[in-house]
Design a protein that fits this description.
Blueprint (H helix, E strand, L loop, with lengths): L19 E2 L11 H9 L13 H11 L6 E4 L1 H13 L5 E5 L4 H9 L3 E5 L8 H7 L4 E7 L11 H10 L5 E5 L13 H6 L3 E6 L12 E4 L2 H10 L7 H12 L1 H24 L3 E2 L6 E5 L3 H13 L2 E2 L1 E2 L8 E5 L3 H15 L4
Parallel strand pairs: 1-11, 3-4, 3-5, 5-6, 6-7
Antiparallel strand pairs: 2-8, 7-8, 9-10, 10-13, 12-13
Length: 351
């Protein structure tokens, strides 16, 4: 079968205790207390079916982000929104474009729908709008870009995204994956562009900044005709009541979200600088991780093994065609200091 299973970040190392997991871009501070309490309260109603229209969560998202609640669709993580888009708009004979270092679920979802994924080269780990436009054919149905991108952490400006949307053939849908949008102050993830056009959809998640990865809640925002299609093909009870309640409380706790974003910005900058002092450079990251660059694949692999021996789990990105890199999640301060110190020890010759 052409589909390779998605490989998540590891969470344990045999024979090693006191593990620090920095492999899945999780919020080290967890969800807000409001979200935890909302989750706890739903335990009294576990015998009840959840809402089928997700109205209260959509309304909360609408109020916080200034969006039209009627054009919001909720799913089991943004992964499900991506999958639904491929089910609804691509099939045998169709092509789905993604960038070479883009999220692997774009390719998997396209193949699952019977479509052909088309990989387009990036330019120094940055989305290349001209290359995407050149790759479009009469068979192209969708273009996926993550902005900021994972695992590179890079992003392109609003002007370039708008140019891509404008220049795409009329029959092509542009999907903006905003999983890491909340880490950038004042950034709307492409929502304003969605409001101006009929060919743009934005996806978002509660798994990153909001710390609800264990509950799997995501959402999409798009033209009414697209959201209508997605609602017709998604499962009626795709999100549980605990997930809906926790996500609603999380998005309304703007003070906590701001605190997490500011801490991530501070620690991300510190970590990148600390790694650079040890001779490990990185591109400017706009997410909650740093893509650490090593001299070779062998060095990156050796460092990964050494970090594991020290109880530090980071993410090899060989599968993303980045063999001489390791993606390191921005943890809390102690985790950042611990991993930077360990990388320094490795570069100094520790084995």
């Amino acid at each position: 079968m052409e589909i390779q299973p998605y490989q998540g970040g590891a969470s344990q190392v045999d024979g090693v205790q006191n593990i620090v997991k920095l492999s899945s871009n999780e919020n080290p501070f967890g969800p807000s207390e409001d979200a935890v309490e909302a989750f706890r309260r739903t335990s009294f109603d576990l015998h009840r079916y959840p809402s089928t229209d997700h109205a209260t969560l959509r309304e909360a998202i609408s109020e916080v982000h200034g969006l039209d609640a009627g054009r919001i669709v909720c799913g089991v993580g943004s992964d499900e929104i991506i999958s639904l888009l491929c089910q609804g708009y691509a099939g045998p004979g169709d092509e789905v474009i993604h960038t070479e270092h883009g999220f692997s679920m774009y390719r998997i979802s396209a193949l699952a729908a019977g479509a052909s994924p088309i990989e387009v080269a990036e330019r120094e780990r940055m989305t290349d709008v001209n290359a995407i436009l050149a790759a479009c054919t009469e068979n192209t149905r969708m273009v996926f870009i993550a902005n900021p991108n994972n695992p590179t952490g890079t992003m392109i400006g609003d002007g370039e995204v708008a140019r891509l949307a404008e220049k795409l053939p009329e029959h092509v849908l542009l999907v903006l994956d905003g999983a890491y949008a909340e880490y950038i102050e004042g950034y709307d993830g492409g929502a304003a562009l969605v409001d101006r056009r009929e060919n743009v959809v934005m996806t978002r998640t509660f798994s990153k900044l909001y710390g609800l990865g264990g509950l799997r809640v995501g959402w999409g925002y798009g033209p009414a005709h697209v959201v209508d299609v997605l609602n017709r093909i998604r499962g009626p009870f795709n999100l549980s009541q605990p997930a809906l309640a926790a996500a609603q409380a999380a998005v309304r706790d703007e003070e906590y979200a701001t605190k997490c974003r500011l801490e991530n910005t501070r620690l991300r900058g510190w970590l990148a600088e600390a790694l650079a002092e040890h001779g490990v450079s990185s591109d400017t990251s706009m997410g909650n991780f740093v893509l650490a660059r090593f001299a070779s694949q062998a060095e990156a692999q050796s460092c990964d093994v050494y970090l594991q021996s020290q109880g530090l789990i980071v993410r090899s990105v060989v599968g993303y065609r980045l063999p001489n890199y390791l993606r390191i999640t921005v943890g809390d301060e102690s985790a950042c200091r611990r991993v930077a110190h360990a990388v320094g020890q490795f570069k100094a010759g520790a084995t």
